[in-house]
Amino acid sequence: MNIKDLKRNLDENNVPRNSYSLNGELPMGSGYVLDFVYGKWIVFLFDRGGRYGESEYDNESDACLRIYNALLAYYKPNKAGRFIEKVEAPKEVIYLPDRSKNDI
Fold first, then answer.
1. Angle CA 8–14–18, to nearest 5
2. What is 23-49 written as a DSSP string?
3. How many structural domains are present in the chain?
């Protein structure tokens, strides 16, 4: 896969264009970035001014596959076949008492 194929596949899967950058420019807010620096392909998540989960690849194909998989893992299809944002985990966890010892 190359950048042209990647862009087409992301568009076909309705991944929002503001959630990634394929030319190394930092997106507004947050998003995945694909960049080519000093002969290496770099993929990272840009969020709140920081770079997270940065990975380096020797070839374009592996880097494109990484960003493609990351974006598809973050977005999931709804019943209409469009992608919606991933549901966040609850902020608070409620622990139920252990009833295996019949403490009642």
1. 90
2. SSPPPSSEEEEEEEETTEEEEEEEETT
3. 1
Q: Assess if residue 11 is contained within a domain.
A: yes
Domain that holds residue 10: 3-85
Task: Say if 44 falls within a structural domain.
Answer: yes
Residue 35: φ, ψ to 5°? -140, 155
Main-chain phi, psi angles of 78, to 5 degrees = -95, -170
Of all helices (H) and strands (E), which one includes residue 70? helix 60-74
Q: What is the pLDDT along the chain (104 residues), one digit of tens a residue?
A: 999 999 999 998 888 999 999 999 988 888 999 999 999 999 999 998 899 999 999 999 999 999 999 998 887 655 555 544 444 444 454 444 555 555 44
* Residue 58 counted as domain residue: yes
What is the pTM assigned to this prediction? 0.70
Q: What's the one-letter identity of residue 62?
A: D
